[in-house]
Amino acid sequence: MSSIRILGSQGSRSKEAFTTCIYVNQHTLIDAGNIIHALGEEALHVNRIFFSHAHLDHIIDTAFVIDHFFSKRTETLYLYGLPHTLEALKKHLFNDVLWPDFSQLYLPNTHIPAITYVEIDLQQSYAIEEGITLTPILANHSVPCCGYFIEQEGSGVLFSGDTFRNEALWKRLNEMPHIKALIIDVSFPNHFVNIATTSKHLTPAFLKEEMSHLKRTELKVYVNHLKSLYTEQITQELAAIGIGETMILKDAQRIDLASGALQQALHTSKNDKRVQKLTEIGTALSANESLDVLLEMIVTEAKNLTNADGGTLYLLDNHALHFKVIQTDSLHIKMGGTSDAISWLPLPLYLEDSTPNKTMVAATCALEDRLINIPDVYEAVGFSFEGTKQFDKGTGYRSKSMLVIPMKNHEKEIIGVLQLINKYDYNTHNVIPFDCEDEKITLSLASQAAIAITNTSLIQGLETLLESFLKSIIFAISKKSPYSAGHIQRMVRLSVMFAEAINEDQTVYANKHFSAEEIKQINFAALMHDIGKLATPEQIIDKACKLETLFDRIGLIETRFALIQKALHIAYLEGKLSLEEKSIKESLLESYWHLIQRSNTGVEFTNDEDRASIQSMAQEPWNIDGMTYILLTQDEAYNLSVQRGTLTKEERDIINAHAKLSVDILNRLPFPKKYQRIPEISGNHHEKLNGKGYPQGLQGDEISFEARILAIADIFEALTAHDRPYKEGMPLSKAMKILYTMAKEGEIDEDLVRFFYTSGLYLNYAKHFLPKHCMDEVSLDF
Question: Which of 478, 570, 745, 770 is most buried, most CB within 10 Å of its CB?
């Protein structure tokens, strides 16, 4: 029996991933998403391509395979497809505009056209070499599309094509027990409900609904066509419905037509392809920055390289081997890494009497720095496998062949152990011993893996250091101004809540998604948005009243007024001032004092009439019995004349300067590439869409989406904060009304403000951070 090879399994192209293409045999392919890269010169022998549909990711390499081998071909290239598919190829690809019309070009020295179109019939099976037949089945996609039954000698596999809900497909599968496996399209994560429905692709949730139609329990269900950007999220969501990572197809894997079982490409590949795969794995390992994902990948790829059924990865810490990843494919066990936590106790390298723990094979591997290859653990001498036997007894498993490999970093220090179990022979369907090639290739992988683990740990350590450094700056700000520190902490939380809410949205931001790293970048940017305030004098940052410098000067004025009042009384007693004159002046003095007290708080708006009265106090000193008394100094009057808030223009300019200073400080920090936008996001949160913000006066699209989020979070927190010394926190209705007005006046992003309101995000924040008396009813009409 033959097997089919997955040349391309992804829903989009990237450096390491290619789109749909299935190698049926030397002459026949289904779809053309990855021919040249996968087959190289072997692509010359391809004479038939059966298309599922006409979308670019399924036809793209057709153009290159006929062009590249044109001078060497002696047979036409038959292109099979539905009428719509063939018409699209003729009209939009081989049209003498986008690409030559090879159906009108003859192969060199022949009268054979380079390509020939063949319209497929949904009621017909197409026989090709080796007794293989291809039978189309209609799919449910945004354009006419079909899948194919691939059958040989009474067994086979169904490739669904790009599909959405398709009850007919499940009905056919229920009636065809000889079909051993299904390859089905899952393109988007669950939160992309709208785009998946519109484009007619499945999500994990949709697949779960579809599989309710499946009455067969033995059918193997493989998933393909994942969009590369969402692979990690889709993988997690598939796992939640019981489809493990091993059932997600990867380029170069094989599926046996007799059993539907997955055969790893390296099992039937030559050693040079094995080494090539090892190189690809090394590249992937070095590119991964998540330790959990990395550890999981090491075990998965080690199993793939050796056809092992199970694998365990331990990391060495404090003289013990700690379980980090455990996988057994046949038992569907997947623990550690990104899966469920492992509660098993670590393996000590030394016993209680300080002697080496040589009874445990993994501990011996680490202690003696040696590879251990055991053909059958039940017959092994010198090691205790009681725990393994207990596991087998409880699960019905039979542990047999085992390969245990030490993992050493670049300094040749043991950092862990990789243990593989039960090498599978796909020809005999038996468990066989690991061979010397397995030892060599796994030792090489273990070496690369150890270095990758060390590097990833260092990178994560540096990230932890970066975050701790940023938080220490906030700590420094809190010592200078606890109110500013509180603002930063709440504004950070609101910014992250904003990003997370956008990720969950299925309406206006259904197609907008922040990765985990992008959310962390927003978190860091928000943490640093007020770093420039380190250089702002605290008497300005926390200026609670207009007369405050290092202290509130209203006390000086109160003393000054008391002296004036005393002078008035003495003048009256000495007969130099009548009772009426004394009363008039005392009444005026009292009104002035009340005006000063009221203006000093900065709570109410200071109107022009009050400002004129304040200026007159500074310009018109009082004369009492030949003595001159100053009511207010020019500086006191200037500060009291501020109409809104407590800061003068000069003090406001100093405050505003923190934004540019923040950017200058952040631009001097060597952020890693993935966080290089922190200075821009952080420094532009005071910019306004109408160009009236600061420090650069940016407008419109010059202000990034992330900076717009920070702007709204910063304003809303400042409006509702209830711990400021100079003002009371606003109720929700008033704060939201101000945001609404600013949005309507083109200062901040109206769509984001509307989302902030309609999603209930403002209320969710308020429940966590605002006192109950501030949480009144909000009603806005956008």
Answer: 770
- Coil/strand/helix, residue 39: helix
- What's the rounded Cα separation, in Å, for the pair 504 and 755? 12
Q: By the 8 A CB rule, do 727 and 487 touch? A: no
Q: What are phi and psi of 525, to 5 degrees?
A: -60, -40
Q: What residues contact 407, with CB distance under 8 A and at least 6 apart? A: 414, 415, 416, 417, 418, 446, 447, 449, 450, 453
Report how far residue 511's alpha carbon sits from residue 230's, in angstroms, rounded to the nearest whole number.
12
What does the block give as tokens for 511? Answer: 């197609």
DSSP 772: G
**Bridging pattern class, strands 28-30 and 48-50:** parallel
Class of domain 3-263: alpha beta
Nearest to 495, CA basis, from 518, 475, 468: 518
Task: Please give the full DSSP string across 566-602, using - where no structure is assigned.
Answer: HHHHHHHHTTSS-HHHHHHHHHHHHHHHHHHHHHHH-
Q: Look at the block and give the residue holding tokens 């407008």.
A: 699
- Per-residue pLDDT of 222-253, as tens digits, reads 999 999 889 999 999 999 999 999 999 999 89
Pairwise CA distance, residues 443 & 450, whole Å: 10
The DSSP element (H or E) to which 494 belongs, if any, is: helix 482-504
The C-alpha atoms of residue 534 and residue 212 are separated, in whole angstroms, by 60
All structural domains of the chain with their residue ranges: 3-263, 271-454, 482-539+650-774, 554-645
Residue 750's nearest CA partner among 558, 519, 508, 567 is: 508
Residues 728-738 as b or e (16 or more Cβ within 10 Å = b): ebbbbeebbbe
* Contact assessment for residue 618 and residue 600, using Cβ atoms and an 8 Å cutoff: no
Helix H or strand E segment including 208: helix 204-211
* CATH number among 3.40.50.970, 3.40.50.2300, 1.10.3210.10, 2.102.10.10, domain 482-539+650-774: 1.10.3210.10
CA distance 140 to 464: 48
**Amino acid at site 718:** A
pLDDT tens-digit readout, 342-398: 989 999 999 999 999 999 999 999 999 999 999 999 999 889 898 899 999 999 999
Give me the CATH topology for the region 271-454: Beta-Lactamase (3.30.450)
